[in-house]
Specification:
alpha/beta, Rossmann fold, 7-stranded mixed sheet, 38% helix, 17% strand, hydrolase activity, acting on carbon-nitrogen (but not peptide) bonds, in linear amides
């Protein structure tokens, strides 16, 4: 029902790679069904890179990663300070509202409300304010929560899982993080599949849903 009612989808990331980890399979599903997919990335966390790194490395990796999933030329970048989103809540809300008016998405996917990374928490909250009259899903990052979150599941194929792993591997600057390993990504897809009756799946929490009666 969610996908059949969707014409435009907007994925919202606090940082480059957030969406790929949380929803790299769903991006492919929507694109393959002809849905107009957009991505907004709210931070270029250069402070998290080794000293002397190119300031555009994560932006370039994000473009390469999105292209691996079939998404290109539909990415909006912002430059909010990493780990300081709480100081910019109103500005973030206003940018989300501008995206809502410009793209007019039916489906929005962002961080889980149960994600305790400070930037993710703010983005989930402000997304709920900006898109309270649409369908809003939250993707999960198990390394940022101690809850098993998710009541909406999307089956993904083995090919889509492989493409997701390839997209995440485009973030070479983040390769040392343990959760970037292909076996971790696959294990999360297997776990979500076990929970939902599929071989592989991605899990999301339903944050809000408003569906217009077209009759």
């Amino acid at each position: 029902m969610i996908i059949s009612n969707t014409k435009k989808a907007l994925f919202i990331s606090a940082h480059p790679d957030d969406t790929e980890f949380g929803a790299g399979g769903l991006i492919q599903i929507l694109i393959e069904k002809g849905i107009d997919v957009h991505l907004a990335v709210f931070c270029n966390p250069v402070e998290s890179l080794p000293e002397g790194s190119c300031k555009d490395v994560l932006v370039n990796e994000q473009k390469k990663s999105a292209e691996a999933l079939g998404l290109k030329n539909k990415i909006t970048f912002y430059d909010y300070p990493v780990r300081k989103f709480s100081y910019c809540r109103q500005e973030i809300l206003e940018d989300l509202i501008k995206l809502r008016k410009k793209i007019k998405p039916d489906l929005i996917i962002t961080s889980s409300e149960n994600d305790y990374h400070q930037d993710h928490t703010v983005l989930a909250c402000e997304s709920k304010r900006a898109f309270k009259l649409a369908i809003l899903l939250g993707y999960t990052h198990p390394w940022n929560t101690r809850k098993m979150v998710g009541n909406v599941f999307f089956e993904i194929s083995e090919i889509q899982l492989d493409n997701k792993i390839n997209a995440i591997s485009a973030f070479g600057s983040q390769a040392l993080r343990s959760y970037s390993e292909p076996r971790v990504i696959e294990s999360l897809a297997i776990e979500a599949g076990v929970a939902s009756g599929f071989v592989y799946a991605e899990r999301f929490e339903l944050i809000t849903m408003s569906i217009k009666n077209e009759e």
